Amino acid sequence: MKKSLFKNMLYKILLNVFNLIVPILVGTYVNRALGVSSLGKVQFAESIFNYFFIFASFGVYQYGLREMSRLKNDRDKVSQLFTSLFTISFVSGIAALLFYLSFSYLGYSDKSTFPILLIFAFNFIVNIFYVEWVNEAMENYDFITVKTIIVRSIYVVLIFIMVNTPGDYHEYAILLVFSMFLNNIVSFIYIKRKIKFDFRNISIRQHIKPLFLVVIFSNANVLYTQLDRFMLGQYVSTKYVSYYVIPQQIMGIINTLLLSIIQVSIPRLSNILGENDDKSYLTLLNNISKAYFAFLFPAAVGLYLLADVGVFIYGGREFIAAAPVLSAFSFYMIILGIDFILANQIIYVKKKEHVLVRLVFLCGFLNLGLNALLLQYDLFTPVTAILTTAVSNLLLILLEYGYIRRYLKVDYHLFELGKMKYFFIALLFIPVSYLIRQYVSGPIPLFISIVGINSLLYAGILFITKDQVMKMFLDKVKSRFNK
C-alpha cells in the first residue's frame, strides 16, 4: 500500500522545520561562544574531513535510495540489496579512514587542527551504520521525524552544557560526531528489525560502477563550495572560512526546509519510472517543480534583502562582515535548487548519471580555475569565492537543461511562465522592504516586519490570482480537516 505523498511531505516539512529551529538555536549560541577563530578551526578541519568522507559514504545514500525505491515490494531483493550496499559501505569506510589518518598525520600533525581531525575520524566508523536511505525509500518519514527530533534535542542540551567558551571547540567537534552516531545507530536498529542480512546472493561488482558515478555527481560540492572553504583556509585565513560558512549555514537551513517539497518525491518518481509510467512521472515532476519554485524564489529574494539582519542575528556583531557573502549565497540558492531538480529528479532517476559526471567535472574544474585566477591576482575572498561557484553552477544547469530537452526528450519546460512567475512576484519584496526599513529599526523588529508583510503580500497575490499551487495546498488541507 502506497503511503500518502502529501502526508510524507508534511512529515518532511515538520522534520525540516525542527531542523531549521535547531541550527538557529545552536548556531547563534555556538557562534558567540566559540568566536571566529575557534569556529574557523573546526570548520577548516571539517572541510578536510569532507573530502575523505565522500569516499567513505561512496554514494550509497543516493544510489541505494533510487534502487531500493524500484524494488521495495520484493522482500528477497530488498534484503540482498541492503546486504550488498552495507558490505560496500563497510569496506569503503575502513579504507577511507586509513587514508584520512595518514593524510592528517603527514600534513597537520604539528598544527592545532590535528586533534579536531582525529575527532572527526570516528565518523568513518559511524557512517557504516547510516541506513537512512532505506527509511526514505520505504517512505518511513514518520519514524525519521520522531527519531531525529529526539536525537537532535539531546544534542542541543549537551551543546549548552559542554560548549561555553572559545576553548571548548574540541567538545563541540565531539558532540557533532556523537549526534551523528546516535542518529545512525537508532536507524540501523530500526531497519534491522525489518530487513535481515542475506549473504547468499550478495552482489558487489554490479554496484561498483554506478556507485562510483554517483560519488562524483552527488558530491559536486567538492569542486564547488567545499573547494572554496578549503582554499580560503589553506591560502587566505581560517577566519575567512567562518565568514564563508556562516552564510552557507544560513542558506543551508532555509534550503533544507524548501527541499522537503521535492525530496519526498524522489522515491515515488523512481518507482513510477520503474513501472514505465512516463505520463504520471511528467505530471508529478511538473507539479512538484511548481510547488518548489513557489517557495524557492520568495525565500531567495527575502534572504538577499535580509542578509545583514540574518548574519547579525545568527552570528552576532563579530560576523557582520559576512553579510555580503550571504547576499551572494541567496543567488546561489536559486541555482542550487534548479540543479537539484534537473540532476536528481530527471537525469539521475532516468539512470543517466554518467552524463552528470561529465558535466559536473567540466563546471567544477571551471570553478577551480576561476578560484586559482582570483588567488593569483589577490582577489580571492568569501564573496568572490561563492560568486565563481554560482557562475560555474549556472553553466551546469544550462548544460543539464539542454541535455534533458535535446537528448532525453523530456517534455519539461524550466523557464515557462507557470514556474517563473513566482520569481517576478517575489521581486515586489524589494520596494516593500525598502519602505519598511525607512520606518522600522532594530534587527528583530526589522526581520519580523519584512518577513511578515512580504509573506502576506505574496500569499495574497497567489490567492487573488487563483494560483495552482495555492489551490492545491488549500484543497489538501481542507480535505484533511473534513475527514
Describe the structure.
The structure is a single chain. With 483 residues, the chain is mainly α. Helix content is 82%, strand content 0%. It has 2 domains: 1-218, no CATH class; 221-483, no CATH class. The protein is globular, with a radius of gyration of 22 Å. The two termini are 20 Å apart.
Return the structural class. mainly alpha
The number of E-state strands comes to 0
The helical percent reads over 70%
In round numbers, the mean pLDDT is 85
Counting DSSP H or I runs of 4 or more residues, the number of helices is 20
Amino-to-carboxy terminus distance:
20 Å
Radius of gyration: 22 Å
Strand content: under 5%
Most strands sheet: none
Shape: globular
Sequence of secondary-structure elements: HHHHHHHHHHHHHHHHHHHH
Pfam family, one: Polysacc_synt
Organism: Mesobacillus boroniphilus
Main location: membrane
Membrane topology: Multi-pass membrane protein
